[in-house]
Specification:
single chain, 454 residues, mainly alpha, Glycosyltransferase, 4-stranded antiparallel β-sheet, 3-stranded antiparallel β-sheet, globular, glycosidase, MGH1-like_GH, hydrolase, Glc3Man9GlcNAc2 oligosaccharide glucosidase activity, Glycoside_hydrolase_63
């Protein structure tokens, strides 16, 4: 049964979305898709929990706690938690490649689970707060916030202390998979320094589940493998040393850091609910927001850019990641206004009504190749939230309607052609279904006002 009456008012869409999440549920977590992604992914689970809270807050809490149970001793939340019941060849790179329990032992990788060694954007605290607010009585009864808050603190501490490689308060990404936008044109120049792994040294499993024209190229994949191999072989060490020289790929990504700031605001809410001091989180959120503006803002482009730390220069590529600081509470109004204009201008205003992942006017744009142009539903969910947060309700309403319409019409596709809305990638994709459930909920009902012990 659908718990939230506002969701059930759009019953056919909501029921179809709930069916996807039920089919992809393993008993402890939700896989992104049964074919291409048969394990648990970090930021997927956060977005999935945000939608699951509307049909089962219990499952949403379990989704996050299952993920955080595989947290490393140094605080990192790995981007994949592997299911030992999945055949070894079903996904590459799998547990035999990452060797987390041995190669990551110095960094505190768990002995009871195999994981990857890299991370994904820190949207988890935001998800945890929204999940708690969906069912505060059940959450308090289960001890959810007291149990999860220390793990979220450790996760943010890791990003703050181990990943601030630029020294200005932003978390660095050490692999193109870490910001979540795997083959964005933003990575082309930084990746060009990386010598790819030999083509015969690995076998891609992703091409068995999707069209090669839609996926990253073999050259890019070879570079991904080379970077992950080097990071693994240095024991997943983040700080350069004599034994671990400077990272060949290191960037400050505006999308990841926007979610870092937004999740610090969520941690402030969690701290307040627990009777702790929220001010340290608010100060950290403000510092990240200032660093975003000081390090990554491009007034000429009207959005935030990636900074290549090896070159200490902004990458002149316009990605939807540069719009994601709209989701940060406290972003300067002038910057929010500029982002709102850019989101509806020629670089991002596509025919389907969804915002593409990359600049429509660039020669590098592709409407179908993974993160080089297609519209992704998690990005559009974040931008809908950000537009609404900063007072652009009409634009948010239009984006909400386009996202729900396209998600349902495509069978909850992984991503969509931004011009036509045609489905691309996997179907029955979990975060698409989950975030559709959230968007079906009237905005005022998504985050009910706090009450006692909220």
């Amino acid at each position: 049964m659908l718990r939230n009456s506002s969701v059930s008012s759009s019953l056919p869409v909501a029921a179809a979305a709930a069916k996807v999440l039920e089919a992809n549920w393993t008993g402890t977590a939700t896989v992104p898709s049964r074919g291409l992604y048969p394990h648990q992914w970090s930021w997927d689970s956060a977005f999935i929990a945000i939608g699951l809270r509307h049909i089962s807050a219990l499952r949403a809490r379990r989704e996050l706690e299952t993920l955080l149970a595989a947290q490393w001793g140094d605080g990192r939340v790995p981007h994949i938690v592997f299911n030992p019941g999945v055949p070894a060849g079903a996904y590459f790179p799998g547990p035999a490649f990452w060797r987390s329990s041995t190669a990551g032992a110095t960094a505190g990788a768990p002995g009871g689970a195999e994981t990857s060694g890299i991370v994904q954007p820190p949207v988890h605290a935001l998800a945890a707060w929204l999940v708690h607010r969906a069912d505060p009585v059940g959450s308090w009864r289960a001890g959810f916030l007291p149990r999860i808050y220390p793990r979220l603190l450790a996760w943010h501490r890791y990003l703050r202390e181990e990943r601030d490689l630029g020294g200005h308060g932003l978390a660095a990404s050490l692999h193109p998979w870490e910001p979540g936008m795997d083959n964005s044109p933003c990575w082309d120049a930084p990746l060009a320094r990386v010598i790819p792994a030999p083509a015969d040294s690995f076998r891609r499993a992703d091409l068995s589940h999707g069209a090669g024209a839609d996926r990253p190229t073999d050259l890019d994949y070879g570079r991904y493998v080379a970077l992950a191999t080097a990071y693994r072989d240095r024991g997943y060490a983040d700080t350069p040393s004599l034994k671990s020289p400077a990272h060949p790929f290191a960037v400050e990504d505006p999308g990841s850091n926007a979610l870092f700031a937004a999740s610090e605001h969520a941690l402030a809410e969690i701290a307040l609910a627990l009777g702790a001091d929220p001010q340290p989180h608010l100060r950290r959120a403000a510092r990240i927001t200032r660093a975003l503006a000081g390090r990554l803002w491009s007034a000429a482009d009207g959005l935030f850019l990636v900074r290549d730390l090896r070159a200490d220069a902004l990458v002149p590529q316009l990605s939807a990641a540069g719009l994601l600081p709209l989701a940060v509470p406290g972003l300067q109004p002038a910057l929010a206004a500029a982002l709102a204009r850019t989101a509806t201008g020629p670089h991002f205003a596509a025919g389907s009504g969804l915002i593409p992942s990359y600049d429509l006017t660039s020669p590098a744009f592709s409407p179908t190749r993974y993160w080089r142009g297609p519209a992704w539903f998690n990005v559009n969910w974040l931008l809908e939230r950000g537009l609404r947060l900063h007072g652009y309700a009409d634009r948010a309403d239009a984006l909400r309607a386009a996202a729900v319409r396209t998600a349902y019409a495509t069978g909850f596709a992984e991503y969509a052609d931004p011009h036509t809305g045609d489905p691309r990638g996997s179907r029955d994709f979990s975060w698409t279904a989950a975030l559709t459930l959230d968007l079906l909920t009237p905005p005022d009902d998504r985050e009910p006002p706090g009450g006692p012990r909220s």
